[in-house]
Batch of 2 targets.
Target 1
Amino acid sequence: MTKFAWSIKKFSKNSKARIGTISTPHGKINTPAFIFCATKGALKSFTTNEAKKNNTQIILSNTYHLMLQPGSEVIANHGGLHKFINWDGPMLTDSGGFQIFSLGHGSVADEIKGSSNIKRNKSLLNINEEGSLFKSYVDGAYKLLSPEKSIEIQRNLGADLILVFDECTPFHVDKAYTNSSMKRSHRWATRSYNRFASDILYKSGYGSAGEQKLYGIVQGGIYDDLREESIDFNLNKIDTFGIAIGGSLGSSKEEMYRVVNFTAPKLGHMNPIHLLGIGDPRDIWSLVKSGVDTFDCVSPTRLARHGSALTKGKVGKINIKNKKYTNQISPIDETCKCSTCSSYTLAYIHHLFKADELLGLQLVTAHNIFFMNKLMSDIRNAIDNDNLDDAEKEWLS
Amino acid sequence: MTKFAWSIKKFSKNSKARIGTISTPHGKINTPAFIFCATKGALKSFTTNEAKKNNTQIILSNTYHLMLQPGSEVIANHGGLHKFINWDGPMLTDSGGFQIFSLGHGSVADEIKGSSNIKRNKSLLNINEEGSLFKSYVDGAYKLLSPEKSIEIQRNLGADLILVFDECTPFHVDKAYTNSSMKRSHRWATRSYNRFASDILYKSGYGSAGEQKLYGIVQGGIYDDLREESIDFNLNKIDTFGIAIGGSLGSSKEEMYRVVNFTAPKLGHMNPIHLLGIGDPRDIWSLVKSGVDTFDCVSPTRLARHGSALTKGKVGKINIKNKKYTNQISPIDETCKCSTCSSYTLAYIHHLFKADELLGLQLVTAHNIFFMNKLMSDIRNAIDNDNLDDAEKEWLS
């Protein structure tokens, strides 16, 4: 008897948008939902208890970072990531592919994934059929990550939802490379699936960290025929619980919208659909209409660290460090019910950033996390009430 | 009708230790108590709400830092420091003297006050009868701080308890300098008192920030005759609510104990006695027996930032970054009831420090704050139960 389930509660009348529920052994996720990044096992400057109070449903951690520090064995010894980081809600881990390739290429993949601040240390040493060899940023040691190894590490980590190992193809490569990379990622996905399905731990009561479910990843860059091929692979050639949309989404928002709108509807209703690395509220309003169920991105917490608080409207954020807030005796948003807006003024938070006090980024992080969860809740309500377009207009006006 | 009061509930049988209550318009402080440093208006990486949950009674902020950023007018416009930083409990501000002189001299005053990491930028430009001229570390502007100016700024900030302006004499100067510095600090104390007592805002309903009470400061370095003179000045020449022990406490723990034990008992019972800048639990156990009622120090939060968690026993702390904690699946202290020890293991906090995650220092800060408040609560109980010596032995064993 599995504790996992995916069910759609209602479809939108005027789009492919839908509200649903992903059930996991650690609780339910009401979709559309946003997944916050606890990259190295910690939401940046934020406790899991606070995240829960700010309505967070699910967080993700990164195989790549955790395999290097503290090492997945340490986490397995600890009874898995849930216990290690004190988060008893649903969790996802990525496969490590994205970080190896975006950190390793030092490529534009960073940019389209909104991670332009990552150090470009060209740590990727070699990539071949077996997997990819890279240099640890922690101690300089050589590390091989393969589909089998990625799954084993994710088994050790023990998140509810895990991903197949893939190459995150950058957007500046040509169609031929995108095609061969996609085909290799499909072979890697099959190997990931085989390792996942045959895992001795998995079959013998699911190991210490509990049962898990696998997500496939749709590749194919900006090329419709390749996307079609990858959609067919994910729907018909491997049997995964969920499907993520990965690979390059092009070099502009328009291209991204086109690729997602081409891909997501063809994935149907049998699997929850995750879009990798997208977190701009404007994009989310648009892309739920293609049928995307979950999103993840480092942006809410990263923006907070740089002093940007998320707000409704077209611009979508304010710069806390702006001098005009020196005497602003009102919160970031008068209507916001987050712990920061209930207790602190812009004048104070502005002062904290000017004075280099860590508390400043913590307070904005709380607001941004609450904000994203409110956004997703408003989207779910709008789908439920058949007024998604109106709600979007109101939010962005 | 004043809302301020000082009352002693009970004296220890075998020492000068006492338990009492300082009442302020923002609540009562049960003494002996520890005052946590929110230097620039923020407990380092910690919200005031969390501080309260961890049993914090009173916090202090620094005139020197706040006059430079954001400026005391900004805080006055905001309705005072309590509203600015969202802390509705008792607060104290220092006069700015200590920072001007310790930062300005770049002297050993840093070390004996436990602040050896402060940048030594020799910002103090001139000191004369009027006050002291220094260069702002924020914008390089010349600033004069005088007794009158310090009180005006502290009136703007609006803490419950405020301090007279003094020179914090370093310990390496000779007796002649200590003597003349003390006499000038006495003249400055009189001017501080006069400005405080004659303040128009103060007399006309206490301004926006509410009523305040003044503390004098006992000077005199390590010289008994000078300490006697300063004690006489503070008890008989100005009329303050509380009295702080300041100036140099010597170059060793033994000298500090001697100076405090010489000074505090002579201050009697009519005023709460504060000891400036001391926060080592071993010192606190010892110095409450001289009759000290309140202590302050940056050490609990500073130690946390450097990965040291406070513990009972002779050593008094553990280094979270020590490799031996990699797989330690138990909290910092099994018996501790703080939010960190209830939720997180040493293995996880060790990982956070290794991974440069800010959450690590936040979690240790929570523990250290709770720890200091538990220490003071245990001391109060021990005085109440007449077993202070036994309780100290047990705590330090």
Target 2
Amino acid sequence: MDTLNIPTRTTQPRVVIIGGGFGGVKLAFALKNHDVQVVLLDRNNYHTFQPLLYQVATAGLEPDSIAYPLRKVFKGFRNVFFRMGEALRVHSERNVLETSIGDIEYDYLVIATGSKTNFFGMKELEDNAMGMKSVSEALNIRSLLLQSFEEATRTNDPKRRQELMTFVVVGGGPTGVETSGALAELKKHVLQKDYPELDLRLMRIYLLEAVPRLLNGMSDVAGRKAVDFLQAMGVNVLLGAQVEHYDGNTVQMQDGSAIASSTLIWAAGVAGADIPGLEDAVGRGRLKVDEYNRVAGFQNIFAIGDVAAMPDTPDVRYPNGHPMVAPVAMQQGTLLGKNILRWLQKQEPEPFRYFDKGSMATVGRNKAVVDIHNVRFQGWFAWVAWLGLHLIMLVGFRNKLIVTVNWVWNYLSYDRGTRLIVRPFRRKKEQL
Amino acid sequence: MDTLNIPTRTTQPRVVIIGGGFGGVKLAFALKNHDVQVVLLDRNNYHTFQPLLYQVATAGLEPDSIAYPLRKVFKGFRNVFFRMGEALRVHSERNVLETSIGDIEYDYLVIATGSKTNFFGMKELEDNAMGMKSVSEALNIRSLLLQSFEEATRTNDPKRRQELMTFVVVGGGPTGVETSGALAELKKHVLQKDYPELDLRLMRIYLLEAVPRLLNGMSDVAGRKAVDFLQAMGVNVLLGAQVEHYDGNTVQMQDGSAIASSTLIWAAGVAGADIPGLEDAVGRGRLKVDEYNRVAGFQNIFAIGDVAAMPDTPDVRYPNGHPMVAPVAMQQGTLLGKNILRWLQKQEPEPFRYFDKGSMATVGRNKAVVDIHNVRFQGWFAWVAWLGLHLIMLVGFRNKLIVTVNWVWNYLSYDRGTRLIVRPFRRKKEQL
């Protein structure tokens, strides 16, 4: 029985989408005003533009600029119903999704839940490290950073002060590179002025990566250039460095070395955010899907984006599934929408093939790296390309406008405007 | 013993200011780079521009636009030290202030803690009503408003739906008038589009005021015009309506009538946010001060702004103390700074006399009321004056810029951009 007050279907089949990220939104767009009923469920009432979360964490942007109300996204979609709630379990034998706000029946179910931070089972790390997958988590990092500086100002203990002024970012992918670069700029242009009582030369920023290079999905030259940029900005880049323990004060590495730091930002791994009821289809932390994004063992349950892995396809480029990036989710969402309409009209579906447009990462002002197949460039032009692309991808004209104003302001003034501790962050052990 | 790691004074006397609101900031400005050491303590690391809090609560502005980092305010003030922490108790016999981050000695202590919501001892009301004195509280109102609409969409119970779609604002001062007006605009221009499943004609907005008029501190014509504006916008203005009980579902009034509503915004009263240790000087919820803002019974403890009442002055206009508005706090802060410097130089201090520049309140787009002594005007021109004055008063060029962009955008698009539930609000009884 449905309890979400969705209009009863007469002839229209119902597509239930879990998650309003890049994949879920694109899918809803593909089904817009077609002869299906679409119900999109998300735990938040907004779409998060995850590529810019790190700028929220480092006080460059307001959360409101990179998040967009889902109801506004779907304005004028006569067949799309949004509900805010959390998916709890799939009852595939009854075609029912159990959620925090009630049960809903589906004809087609699409898991588009994205990914969650992966601590690889290290519980102590999970309790003490900061993830950066959501607006709340990014705001927690911003608060902790500022709280650490406030405490550093008032402590009389030099050891504690050094710990508070040391920031360790783990993970050499785009998020880790962008975050450590943004911290270096914050140090140079903002914190120095805000905390004249502190000797900012004591502030240390580390970027740790387990493999011997940065930006593993990109070209060698991009990875090397990122190291150069970061080192020139004063970031200590440690390659081949594997974190074993973190108790909130000391980062312990496998080779026996250690860094005293009260802030560890974990950007070293994500796992698909799968859902109870589909355990049999999970492999390597993602849901196994065929080339039509059908979850293994089901005809009417699909998974798209980060949560899905398509390992058995003829596409030899990605033997373990596609990279967990926005373009994959968007392309899968759009194609699945078309395929659902094709199935309904008894037409042949089209298998998914990823069109890789290239990748990019930014390090700091005037500094970015871009790979577009064999065209590779770095520096100012790459940085402008990065800015432009992210502005284009942001949902909504207002957000583009506000982000542009912020970026121009930050660029000209060397400032970061949004350094407020709106809700102080408390560690788990302090909450008890 | 000091434990805040403030440089030890040699010859400079120390002025400790509690609170970085309008009064505290103006006082620090008056003492800037003079031969005194200033320590300013605030529980937040930012100054809040309270007159625009209602726009945060009604999704018009981001919190970051109306708050400003205190460290940035004091950039280049060589003698001002900021500490984030909460004042706990004044130990006047030892000239020590006890705070959440340690103790600090003072030569002069200034209480500039502003005001807190006054529920007049009604515990049940306090547990269920929403205050609007801080950024967190304003964000809670925004979240509750949006959560109520989400729940109204999915409930099958018409009674519950009506309760969720009814908003009661209590208090006919500027905050109440501005909030209920903003809710009416949100209904007309935004919620209708966001919730096509709901019949928005069911949404009801009430403004309750205990006395028989609105904007009691302003002219009769301003009060009457505000009623006209609000009624034309669809707000039910109930004058002479006194709230007795509120359990989170039903607003019970003294005359026996009742309104079913799950949201009550309480803007009906504030009391001075006084501090333990000065109990003897409290009268009618504010600290009694003389015309130099000295707290009754002390020579080196002062109070300025909302928390202070100056009842025994020759100024017959304000027998119960000055109105609790920003200009009073700012003028008292500036004068006290000058007077402290005068005392230090053995000069005569100057008694405080409030220069009332007039008052204004806005109701909605193109609608405001302004009283400047006997010059009174309402409507579009008053609204432009309100906008201009608030932009001028906002601290910081970046905030002026972002607020302007938001206002222009909201005006042209009839939109409110920031309707995110970043952290869902939970009532006290739900938190247990």
